[in-house]
Dephospho-CoA kinase
Amino acid sequence: MKPWILGLTGGIGSGKSAAAAHFSAMGVHMVDADHASRWVVEPGRPALERIVDRFGDAMLLADGNLNRAALRERIFTSEEERRWLEQLLHPLIRQEIVTNLAQAESPYAILVSPLLVESGQNQMTQRVLVVDTPEHLQLQRTMRRDNVPEEQVRAILKAQAQREDRLKHADDVLVNDADLDHLQRQVERLHDFYLSLRGGQP
């Protein structure tokens, strides 16, 4: 029987990666949209050439890889440039994800994506799990983890779906407002529940 697909999402600093890692440790096939978005812009891939054509050589690091920081800076200040980039990358990322999900052998597979709702990737899933965290914790965790100023984190939060919007699409919500132990126990509970589902529905 073909595995059904769970979409796993959450804002920056919500703990979705920690939740994903625990699902993965229990043997669930995992596809990370962030990884897919890195693969499609690797040196030699057409997407990277298109980005350099549009934004110039400043988009490349000395080793020929994409200069993510420079690109991020460029698109966060311009709505138009961000849209152009999304139109280029989203179809390529989607194809990468579809190919990878097709290799799943666990009863269900997980697509982890910070932009699950915004990019329409939730249409590839049968069920959506949102890892939800109060905004002040998102800010604290991200500033500590990435060592970036508060304004930058706020800009990213603004570009991502608003919490209410994300929660509207959720079939399940995992509230991550305590420690890692607490998070992992919730993941284990959800995993048991998911194993009982057919096609993602009770």
About this structure: The chain has one domain: 4-195. The CA atoms of residues 94 and 121 lie 7 Å apart.
